[in-house]
Design brief:
This protein is of the alpha+beta class. A 4-stranded antiparallel sheet has the order 3-4-6-5, sandwiched between helices. It has a two-stranded antiparallel ribbon with strand order 1-2. The radius of gyration is 21 Å and the shape is globular. The N terminus is likely disordered.
């Protein structure tokens, strides 16, 4: 009888362990809201001033900042311009969220991009070119903004997302995004 109870207890523990493992695997495959991850990773002030652009029903959707004041045409034009500036096309990614300062006196850009099949290098190269362009623009212009561009972070997460962070406190923002994507 004691052996039977021990065997049943062991089976129960094994069943619970398998259930827990299965639950965590299913959660990691769930789609992530990259715009929400970017917003949570950065300061409230940045959320107020810098829109986050993501793909949407009519091409793009904007969130945060002054998005509620933007027309659909403006959002489309802004989205097309941002993708070109970031060095990749909508076809190069299955999902993304971008936030960039359009002012030439500021080195600011955040991106989470899920590359399309076989497009990781294309996305990385585009984002690296954006970083290099920002460094070149600021090197002899604004020392503090050059330092921000020089300290930009670019990497590929375990889930395949390409992440670029170019802002004040880039290490913290990058770590926040990395943690959210795990």
């Amino acid at each position: 009888m004691k052996k039977t109870l021990k065997a049943l207890a062991a089976l129960l523990v094994l069943a619970l362990a398998l259930t827990a493992c299965g639950g965590s695997t299913a959660g990691s495959n769930a789609p992530k809201n990259y715009a929400e991850i970017l917003a949570a990773a950065r300061s409230n002030e940045d959320n107020e001033y810098y829109e986050i652009l993501a793909p949407g029903e009519n091409g793009y959707t904007a969130a945060q900042g002054h998005a509620d004041e933007m027309s659909a045409d403006y959002i489309k034009d802004y989205g097309d311009m941002l993708l070109e500036l970031m060095g990749f096309s909508a076809e190069d990614a299955t999902d993304y969220a971008l936030s960039v300062s359009m002012m030439n006196v500021q080195s600011y850009g955040l991106a989470i991009v899920k590359p399309a099949e076989g497009k990781t290098e294309t996305v990385q190269a585009g984002l690296q070119a954006f970083i290099d362009q920002q460094k070149a623009a600021q090197e002899h212009y604004l020392e503090d903004q050059y330092a921000i561009a020089k300290n930009a972070k670019l990497g590929v997460m375990p889930g395949g997302e390409v992440v670029m962070v170019m802002c004040e406190d880039a290490d913290t923002v990058y770590a926040n995004i990395e943690k959210a994507l795990k």
